[in-house]
Specification:
Elements lengths: L2 H13 L2 E5 L6 H16 L3 E5 L17 E2 L10 E5 L11 H4 L3 E6 L10 E4 L6 H14 L8 H14 L10 H12 L4 H9 L4 H12 L1 E4 L4 E6 L16 H6 L6 E7 L6 E8 L4 H7 L3 E2 L3 E7 L3 H21 L1
This protein binds manganese (II) ion.
The site of manganese (II) ion has 6 residues, from loops.
């Protein structure tokens, strides 16, 4: 993002007296941390900021918010707000808020490779490993231009969490030298990096560990082991295991030696015949696969929802699409 882009974003935040800052459905660490940090920055610029997330924040990410509360539904006086989204690639990612927010988003700050434009002003930088990197640049720009006078420790903490979360603790292919430089500046500014990484990556609920056991038993390989899948049906949400406990199942699927792409398919708890697929790869463009089903994301990490009669059908559909993508890639 250029410094004139950053100036324009800051101006939108400054000019809005009341801002509604929104992340995506099924919030992840990047969206929660980035939205939290932007709220802190907007408030320091003299704006009243309200955080809105389409779904509740999972317990494991709640620490990024500190004392800040997040709304889960749009406020009644919606038109009084300047609406800003962070890490939201397309309107479908707004989940149940999609219809209420249609055509009302003033500003989108994002880093996804594949998405559907929807905001009046769009600032998307796919080179950023996390939206948190863009928020950090925005913060530095505000300091450098004198708009922010004092450091904002809670914002810095949340930004580090955002960046660390979306890079898998600085180990994914999206990490650049710039990612480490920003992290270094955050650590030098006093951010408790080890604490954040421990809470993000080394702390699990017992139910999550049990879910990982279920996921390991459900691992299936296809295409000579090039595709690794875990399919989770409604009946697996039992014994105190919730759907969110399977968030890390994708790490199990993608760790299989020889796997080129991994998928975790989860049955929706609330919507009959609806399945959510998370896709990961080590090169294959899974964003293009997700896009076929109305989803999107990054080349190596993407997601989509499917309407299918059963978990078996959802699994067959995803495996067929991934197999086609592997064959097409070989030909190219
Ligand atoms: Mn992100």
């Amino acid at each position: 993002m250029t410094s004139s882009d950053l100036s324009r974003i800051l101006r939108i935040a400054e000019d809005s007296k009341t801002a509604l800052i929104i992340g995506h459905a099924h919030p992840d660490g990047d969206c929660v941390g980035s939205a939290m940090a932007l709220c802190e920055i907007a408030e320091a610029l003299g704006c009243k900021a309200t955080l809105l997330l389409p779904d509740p924040v999972p317990l494991r990410l709640a620490f990024l918010l500190g004392e800040r509360q997040a709304l889960n539904e749009v406020p009644e006086d919606l038109d009084a707000y300047t609406i800003i989204t962070v890490d939201v690639a397309s309107p479908t990612q707004l989940g149940d808020l999609k219809d209420a927010l249609a055509d009302k988003v003033a500003l989108r700050i994002d880093h996804h490779d594949v998405g559907t434009p929807y905001a009046k002003a769009e600032f998307v930088d796919p080179r950023a490993a996390a939206t948190g990197e863009i928020i950090f640049d925005l913060y530095e720009h505000a300091i450098a231009t004198g708009k922010l006078k004092a450091p904002l420790p809670r914002a810095l903490y949340a930004m580090f969490g955002a960046i660390s979360s979306d890079t898998g603790c600085f180990k994914y292919a999206n990490v650049t030298g710039g990612t480490h430089l920003r992290a270094a500046k955050l650590i030098d500014a006093g951010v408790a990096a080890a604490e954040i990484n421990r809470l993000l990556f080394e702390t699990k609920d017992a139910s999550q560990l049990r879910a990982e056991g279920v996921a390991q038993r459900k691992l299936q390989l296809f295409a000579d082991g090039k595709i690794s899948c875990i399919a989770i049906d409604r009946g697996d949400y039992t014994d105190g295991i919730s759907i969110g406990d399977f968030d890390t199942a994708i790490d199990i699927a993608r760790s299989v030696r020889g796997s080129l792409c991994a998928a975790v398919i989860k049955a929706s708890l609330t919507k009959e015949n609806t399945y959510r697929a998370s896709l990961r790869s080590i090169g294959l463009n899974v964003a293009a696969v997700a896009e076929r089903f109305g989803g999107g994301g990054h080349v190596r990490a993407a997601g989509c929802s499917l309407e299918c009669a059963s978990i078996e059908e959802a699994l067959r559909t995803i495996v067929a699409a991934l197999t086609e993508a592997i064959v097409a890639e070989k030909k190219a």
